[in-house]
């Protein structure tokens, strides 16, 4: 009788453990090249430092909605004040997700389409090099058709791999474009110059270096993404235990989070309707001169 009971208990344990093990050992997803092209199309023309941060953050899709809400609630903070608030609130999200808090509209884009964000993160986990190849394919199209080119906000590098770098490393401007336009031949009479807009940007400077800003890039030759000056090695296989190095950011578990130490200001409807990146358009950033934080950064 005891033997039968032990066998039954063992069988129950096995039945419970198998689904958990199977879930943990789920096979990696596999995206075809055309699927990857579609996945990266809405961010392929972003400056390399911002693109690298988005790919890393997308590997934590469950954290994106909360981060987007926090960024929206704290839209009035910039520069050092924003960096201090991020540290003070002891946010429980991975530093790669926190790195996007200065870019509320980017987080909003990711949170508003969680299927896309999850697929992008899974593709980057399982097929990092293929994702980078897809970015290059899309950039080649946009450059070939005349849309992607150097201007006052970005520097487009040629060679075997197309790079997109901010004209001012301390000021990241987020492009706005329609993938249904910029990756296809222009229609007769279409004004190519207006297809990619650069209306708003964020002063990065040294405020956000603990989150890897200033130390993120692509090693296109080796197909490696560099985050915080270290190769991003989170993959589908080690995604549950991999911890990327962020020496300047203390990590907090959700239970350790303390109440916010600063006042949250709700957004007005007018503010919600306006682009939110960088709080200042490029033109105002250039006019800010010596009197403002962005003017100080522009001189570097």
How much helix, percentage-wise, in residues? 40-55%
The coarse silhouette is globular
E-strand count = 8
* Topology as a string of helices (H) and strands (E): HHHHHHHHHEEEHEEEEHEHH
Descriptive tags:
9% strand; disordered C terminus; 8 strands; 3-stranded antiparallel sheet; single chain; 300 residues; globular; mainly alpha
Structure description:
The chain is mainly alpha-helical. It has one domain. Helices cover 42% and strands 9% of the residues. A three-stranded antiparallel β-sheet has the order 3-4-8. The chain has a three-stranded antiparallel β-sheet with strand order 5-6-7. A hairpin with a 5-residue loop joins strand 1 and strand 2. The chain is globular, with a radius of gyration of 22 Å. The N and C termini lie far apart (80 Å).
In short:
The chain is mainly alpha-helical. The chain contains 13 helices and 8 strands. Helix 4 (64-73) packs antiparallel against helix 7 (104-112) and helix 8 (114-126) packs across helix 9 (128-144).
List the helices and strands and how they pair.
Blueprint: H1 2-24, H2 33-40, H3 48-57, H4 64-73, H5 79-88, H6 95-98, H7 104-112, H8 114-126, H9 128-144, E1 154-157, E2 163-166, E3 171-173, H10 179-182, E4 200-203, E5 217-219, E6 224-227, E7 230-231, H11 269-273, E8 280-281, H12 282-287, H13 293-298
Antiparallel strand pairs: 1-2, 3-4, 4-8, 5-6, 6-7
Helix pairs in contact: 2-9, 4-7, 8-9
